[in-house]
């Protein structure tokens, strides 16, 4: 998508503090962190939200979750705990319309969120 912020980050047109990258996904630090560790994990392919991911891309979603676990271990938050958040559409709080997972940790989380 031409005007998509996260597509531009994935294409290296906008700088980001990248913590993980492979052929399918990119993970980078959130510029407005809500926890001591706040990483955004995106597919390099553009999907506006979870509602737009085709059913045959289930392996991509699984890959993102497995890598989120790895990143949590690498950041030292796996044992104490972390949260993965996926907002879908405006009422959920999604404000960048490129599917992205928030990996949050480094502090005690409350429930329910938001």
Verbal overview:
This protein is α+β, with helices and mostly antiparallel strands. The chain has one domain (5-105): 2-Layer Sandwich (HIT family, subunit A), CATH 3.30.428. 20% of the residues lie in helices and 22% in strands. It has helices at residues 5-10, 58-74; strands spanning 18-21, 25-29, 37-43, 82-85, 101-105. Strands 1-2-3-5-4 form a five-stranded antiparallel beta sheet, with helices on one face. The model has no long low-confidence stretch (mean pLDDT 96).
From the 3D structure, determine the CATH topology: HIT family, subunit A
Helix/strand order = HEEEHEE
Q: How many β-strands, per DSSP?
A: 5
Rg from alpha-carbon coordinates:
14 Å
Helix content: 10-25%
Low-confidence stretches: none
CATH architecture: 2-Layer Sandwich
Class in CATH? Alpha Beta
Structural class: alpha+beta
Largest sheet: 5 strands, antiparallel
Which strand order spans the largest sheet, edge to edge or round the barrel? 1-2-3-5-4
SS element count, helices: 2
């Amino acid at each position: 998508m031409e005007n998509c912020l996260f597509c531009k980050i994935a294409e290296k047109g906008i700088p980001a503090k990248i913590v993980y990258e492979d052929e399918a996904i990119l993970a980078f630090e959130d510029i407005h962190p809500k926890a001591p560790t706040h990483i955004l994990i995106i597919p390099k392919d553009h999907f506006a939200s979870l509602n737009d991911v085709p059913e045959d891309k289930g392996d991509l979603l699984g890959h993102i979750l497995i890598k989120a676990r790895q990143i949590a271990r690498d950041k030292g938050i796996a044992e104490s705990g972390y949260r993965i958040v996926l907002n879908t559409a405006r009422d959920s709080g999604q404000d960048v319309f490129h599917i992205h997972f928030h990996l949050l940790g480094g502090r005690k989380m409350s429930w329910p969120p938001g």
